[in-house]
Amino acid sequence: MLVSTKWLKEYVNTQDLPPVELGEKITRAGIEVDAVIDRSEGLANLVVGYVTECAKHPEADKLSICQVDVGGGEIDQIICGAPNIAQGQSVIVARPGAKLPGGMKIKKAKLRGEVSNGMICSLQELGIETKLVPKSYAEGIYVLPEKAEPGTDVLSYLDLDDTVLELGLTPNRADAMSMLGVAYEVGAILEEEVSLPEIEYAEAADSAESMLSLEVDAPEANPLYVAKVVRNVKVKESPLWLQQRLMAAGVRPHNNVVDVTNYILMEYGQPLHAFDYDSLGTGNITVRQAKEGEKITTLDDTERTLSAHQLVITNGTDPVALAGVMGGANSEVSDETTTVVIESAYFASDSIRRTSKDHNLRSDASSRYEKGVDPNRVIPAAERAAQLLSELAEGEVLAGSLIFDQLDKQERVVKVSPDFINSRLGMKIRLEDMLDILSRLKFNTEAVNNQLIIEVPTRRQDIQIEEDVVEEIARLYGYDEIPATLPRTDATPGGLSPYQAKRRIARHFLEGAGLLQATTYSLTSEAAATQFALEPTETTRLLMPMSEERSILRQSLLPHLLESLSYNTARRIDSAALYETGSVFLKGQDELLDEQEHLAIVMTGLWLDHSWQGEKKAVDFFVAKGIVEGLAEKLGLELSFERGEMDGLHPGRTAFILLDGKRIGVIGALHPSEQKKRDLKETIVMELNLATLLTRETEALVYTQVSRYPTISRDVALVLSNIVEAQTIEGVIRKAGGKLLKDVRVFDLYEGDRMDEGKKSLAFSLRYFDPEKTLTDEEVNAAHEKIIKALTESGAELR
Amino acid sequence: MEARLQELKNEALEKIQAAQTVKELTDVRVAYLGKKGPITDVLKGMGKLPAEERPKMGALANEVRAEVTESLEVRMVLLEEQAINEKLQSETIDISLPGRPAKTGNPHPLTRVVEEIEDLFLSMGYEIAEGPEVEKDYYNFEALNLPKGHPARDMQDSFYITEDILLRTHTSPVQARTMEAKGGEPIKIICPGKVYRRDNDDATHSHQFTQIEGLVVGEDIRMSDLKGTLSVFAKKMFGEDREIRLRPSFFPFTEPSVEMDISCFKCGGSGCNVCKKTGWIEILGAGMVHPNVLEMAGYDSKRLTGFAFGMGPERIAMLKYGIEDIRHFYTNDVRFLTQFQRTEL
């Protein structure tokens, strides 16, 4: 909502407050002033000029040489390039020394050999947006509608000596979508009275009913409809003051009839519509639900197909307006119009909202109806229109109105006790202060038996319950006056749940291990949604995505994390190691999705880079595996790994991660073709179901006594077929090792030239230990022999 | 023989002094005191001496041996020390060379902000509540006093999956769910999480972002308690000398509703580019829980009241660290992420 402070003064005394200060007061009381716009900013030395002569420039087709009376008996020659310049016009002249927005300064100049003492201005050159400039002046200079005294200062003549407050209205404050509404708000803040427009006009002897009949067949959606008939109107340009007020309010002037309806929309917040009486052709207005498939061409020249739930205004047969949203082209007021029908109506907000949404068509009218207009302004707005049309269009207002009225216009009563207000606020506001605030708001209030009985004006539809009154009192009393206290509730222990605490532990572990935490989007493309998914399900698509790239919910974190890696490597950051925790979204049994919290890791480039000491290590499978194993250990869990395959991963370098034999994750090297596609070098990925890890209860930690007895080591080197996995051999060793075997560790792997084809050498270090005594060589040898025997039986050769 | 011993002694002592390294000195010892050395030879020849001379010569020989040995030891200590010094000298390193970097990662800046806020409220006895990101329209809107067709639904253009299921547009549904689950009991929670809105991504908008909300429900919870709680938060989060101000606002789920500004942490209130010359920075929205919201969750709104507040960690991080583009949080540029390593304490 744009509020001209100059216009506002017509309804309420703003105490000559500087606009910025007024804006601050309004903001602090509850309606945020987003901007304070000085309409005269950058403008200086502009005067009214009168074009006494206008001739073609001999050297240039498009230029005119004008002699302009600029006041004080001075006639200046000004060259003008506008196509609509003509003798006898009153125009805006920027004289030499004048300033225009954007820092432009006007100087005396020569154009194709002719002297030009300034410039004749368009409205755009004065800083007014093109979309607000009347169409007839959009391509040229602005011609003042009435002859004005040459030399008059343009700023005050055009009401540009004005400041506009831009209000950022919350949906509850529909009342402030009108100048009168803002006047009531400002009146309450500044403790000033509001003066309403005085409506007086002469009526013709003939009655409106003699020309028009009205029928409303949809009283639910349209409980109140008022029509007035004005005849012999002269459709023409509106007077300057009206055009300027509309432009200040962000509305483009058209002609006096349309401008009057828009003016009242801004003044009262009540949308009006003007029909060309003769185009209606039937002398009838019928409001009804549309017929399914019925068509109307609206004022924006769009043909729209209607549905039965939409409300239309008809001439008894055909639609002439999409009720409350936009008029029809077939009944539009034109320059030839002589009789107009003014419509002022109350349309139910949900009907308008639905229609406006169906057609993706929002107008100043629909946005007000959607939020609810004041039932008690419908009739006055129609009267105001009649008055202005008789004043500005020389119209003859027919006596009376056609009215269909089933609308409840009763004021709502809210009862609230002062104690309730104070207990909600934690304050001690006195009764008389409350009464004072309510009277400033123009809420009729009675205080009876420690109870405030408040009649809420219908313009304030947002005040419905006691708490609404609490807010009204508090905001005008001042939020600064509220003390700062803390809840007087019992002390609560608070704290993280075990899941949340373990998630933090996991995160800190991963960061300690050298990974950067990343965050990526949950929405992705169809193709990426299930790539790398552990248990892909049917995908979940948005009804109305913004783009295909963000249309499906992800089932794996890896595709976006890999995108992040590519983003970095494309910027020559060759080494990166990222992790993310976040939800993946699977189709489940429930109507909601099965959301699982996952952990994913991606790494590429160098894991270790300490080149000057010759230490450099590229990421590999085992770096990632070590991190996962470390994380499991931190969480008191034991994971196992089994060889596996997954699309997009290297078939020989992929493993599933298992917890208690159940697959919970995958780890592997990115497939070379996938690397190429993503422009990545050797890249390792890992993803697991973090929720499974974190929901697992861990055993209590009990200390084991540190033994006084030493451990004894024995090594064993084996030659094996190179398809045999270390964990298989480790299994054989552990099984045969008995209770003295404490620990098994791979310490060497050799697969080089010195081995036979298809063979590898794997060496283990075994540690034996007895917590009760020092082991003898004999005891160790006996245990070790059993292991060697088991190994050779399993096909391993001793090296 | 006596002269020979004296001669040997002088010779040995001379060579001891001449030895420059531990090795040379060891050679001297072997040469003179070894089993095949000349002193041993002399002593072997004692058998040929008359019996009465033998004790005297024996004593003399021992004397010579002792003297040489002592000299050797003294010299040895010296040379060893010298050798160590030389070794140390040769082992000198360039201490200005860079150290072997310890692997360290760090949290995402949003996590950093969220965790800081979480910890602050945890210390005030709050619990952390979480909920699904794909949510029922009921919890996201209806239970929060936003019935179907409510004008404020304009404010939250949402990603729907079906008519009744959508990506949550705020973390408030977690509040509704928690209240429903608590069955009328007092509540003190904060709810962090990801939320989604139908916005085009640009420098200040993101279709996915994070929120953190708080909810306190109990007997006699007043608006002054909200103000006090927010004031503690502002001071802990943005500095002890922060002031707060509340401005009336509107949210369908609270009444009264407020927006909270803090005095600018950059200029202290005198006006700068961070606060757009106003001295104040808008940080969060809050209010007293709307009685409809309490009633819908099964609370007696006459007996229990509450307050709620909500803020955007992106906005806080952007203000706090001077980040100019919200998209940085989701592109994961390593040059961006690694900047949030160090502590500010």
Automatic annotation (TrEMBL), chain A:
Reactions accelerated catalytically: tRNA(Phe) + L-phenylalanine + ATP = L-phenylalanyl-tRNA(Phe) + AMP + diphosphate + H(+)
Residue ranges occupied by any FDX-ACB domain in the UniProt entry: 707-799
Enzyme class (EC, first level): ligase
Domain B5 intervals: 409-484
Keywords: Aminoacyl-tRNA synthetase, ATP-binding, Cytoplasm, Ligase, Magnesium, Metal-binding, Nucleotide-binding, Protein biosynthesis, RNA-binding, tRNA-binding
Subcellular compartments: Cytoplasm
Main location group: cytoplasm
Gene3D superfamilies hit by this protein: 3.30.56.10, Bira Bifunctional Protein, Domain 2, Ferrodoxin-fold anticodon-binding domain, Nucleic acid-binding proteins, Phenylalanyl-trna Synthetase, Chain B, domain 3
Top-level taxon of origin: Bacteria
Keyword Manganese: no
Example of a GO cellular component annotation carried by this entry: phenylalanine-tRNA ligase complex
NCBIfam families, per the entry: pheT_bact, YtpR
PANTHER family in the record: PHENYLALANINE--TRNA LIGASE BETA SUBUNIT, PHENYLALANYL-TRNA SYNTHETASE BETA CHAIN AND LEUCINE-RICH REPEAT-CONTAINING PROTEIN 47
Alphabetical list of HAMAP family matching this protein: Phe_tRNA_synth_beta1 (MF_00283)
Subunit structure and binding partners: Tetramer of two alpha and two beta subunits.
Official protein name in the record: Phenylalanine--tRNA ligase beta subunit
Gene (name only): pheT
UniProtKB/TrEMBL annotation, chain B:
One Gene Ontology term, aspect cellular component: cytoplasm
Family membership: Belongs to the class-II aminoacyl-tRNA synthetase family. Phe-tRNA synthetase alpha subunit type 1 subfamily.
Subcellular location as annotated: Cytoplasm
A single MF term (Gene Ontology): tRNA binding
GO biological process: phenylalanyl-tRNA aminoacylation
Domain Aminoacyl-transfer RNA synthetases class-II family profile: from-to ranges: 111-339
InterPro entries per UniProt: aa-tRNA-synth_II (IPR006195), aa-tRNA-synth_II/BPL/LPL (IPR045864), Phe-tRNA-synth_IIc_asu (IPR004529), Phe-tRNA_ligase_II_N (IPR004188), Phe_tRNA_ligase_alpha1_bac (IPR022911), Phenylalanyl-tRNA_Synthase (IPR002319), tRNA-bd_arm (IPR010978)
Descriptive protein name: Phenylalanine--tRNA ligase alpha subunit
Domain of life of the source: Bacteria
Binding site for Mg(2+): 255
Gene: pheS
Key words, A-Z: Aminoacyl-tRNA synthetase, ATP-binding, Cytoplasm, Ligase, Magnesium, Metal-binding, Nucleotide-binding, Protein biosynthesis
EC number(s) on file: 6.1.1.20
